[in-house]
Amino acid sequence: MQLRISRSQRLIAAITIASAFFLVEISIGFYTHSLALVADAFHYLNDLVGFIVAFVAHRLSTRNDSPQALSFGWQRAQVLGAFFNGSLLFALGISIMLQSIERFITLHQHHHDHHHDHSHEPVVESEPPREISFKGQRLTSASQHPDHRHLTSETKSFHGGHDMGMMGVLLHVLGDAANNLGVMIAALVIWLTRYEGRYYADPATSLGIAVMILLSSLPLVQQSGLILLESAPKGVNITDVKHDLEKVPGVLAVHELHIWRLNQNKVLASVHVAILDHSASCFSRLAKVIQECFHAYGIHSITIQPEIVSVGPIQGEMKELEMKDNYPEICQLGCRMVCKELTCCG
């Protein structure tokens, strides 16, 4: 029998492990006065916050009940959680980068003073690396954090198979592995080589991981931010949709066309359609044709607002085509001037 572990159970396991590491390391770190352990404990706290945010967002997104004020329910909870995690990671990457640069400057000044004073005693040389190793471990262990979203074409598509929240958690873990590997490489370089600048390996590793965090978190912030800004999905050109709708027989003009993403998978649209009064009787048929046009673009939740234009008897198809070419794109059901600025396009 195959064991199936739900998404919530996986997140709870990650939270439990991160909490255990945090409590053990913070306790031992304070007891032994180890800066490295305390720093690494706060890294796990950082991871823990990301895991909890992902867990809460996932639980909210699966709830059927929601406050009356949330007419779309909790469908954007995971997108909001991904944006929070991405922003947190981006800020962390900037912080680690600045501290790595500071370490480079400190090392450079130390070596400059060291050569200037001609003091090459082993005891003096071994002191700064100890401090740098501790600080560097703080940098690199903090940088184990990447929600490190290497967003691929899968997540860029609004029909992507992976949700942002779980990919963020996965990249947290992969970031931890990459960071630990970087720390070991830096330690081996410092331990096994006798090159004078070998101690630069520690801040260089931190800088490299900081760049990785920035490059992986920025797409996450960008993609989730664009959804929260209600942008149209990639691959859907609003101008093309408008032109296709205007070609539908019986449609005189199209305006107030809005297309936006509710979450990673769902796209919504609303449109005002001006139709001639003689087409009003068969609007249901016309609406189905418009709906099929939206379906071709992967949009399956549409609100159509008809605007009936009375022009009297129409003399043939050519007369209707002339009206299409000359019809002004003015909303027939628009608000008065007093409230125009309060409309979505005002």
TrEMBL record:
Chief localization: membrane
Domain annotation Cation efflux protein cytoplasmic: ranges: 233-307
GO molecular function, one term: zinc ion transmembrane transporter activity
Subcellular location: Membrane
One Pfam family here: Cation_efflux
One GO biological process term: intracellular zinc ion homeostasis
UniProt-listed Gene3D superfamilies: Cation efflux protein transmembrane domain
Topology term for the membrane: Multi-pass membrane protein
Keywords of this entry: Membrane, Transmembrane, Transmembrane helix, Transport, Zinc
Record InterPro entries: Cation_efflux, Cation_efflux_CTD, Cation_efflux_CTD_sf, Cation_efflux_TM, Cation_efflux_TMD_sf
Location of the region described as Disordered in the Swiss-Prot/TrEMBL record: 114-157
Biased composition (Basic and acidic residues): 116-133, 145-157
Cellular compartments per GO CC: membrane
Domain Cation efflux protein transmembrane: 11-116, 157-229
Annotated transmembrane regions: 12-31, 37-58, 79-98, 169-192, 204-221
NCBIfam families in the record: CDF
Family: Belongs to the cation diffusion facilitator (CDF) transporter (TC 2.A.4) family. SLC30A subfamily.
Stated name of the protein: Cation efflux protein cytoplasmic domain-containing protein
Taxonomic lineage from the root: Eukaryota, Fungi, Dikarya, Ascomycota, Pezizomycotina
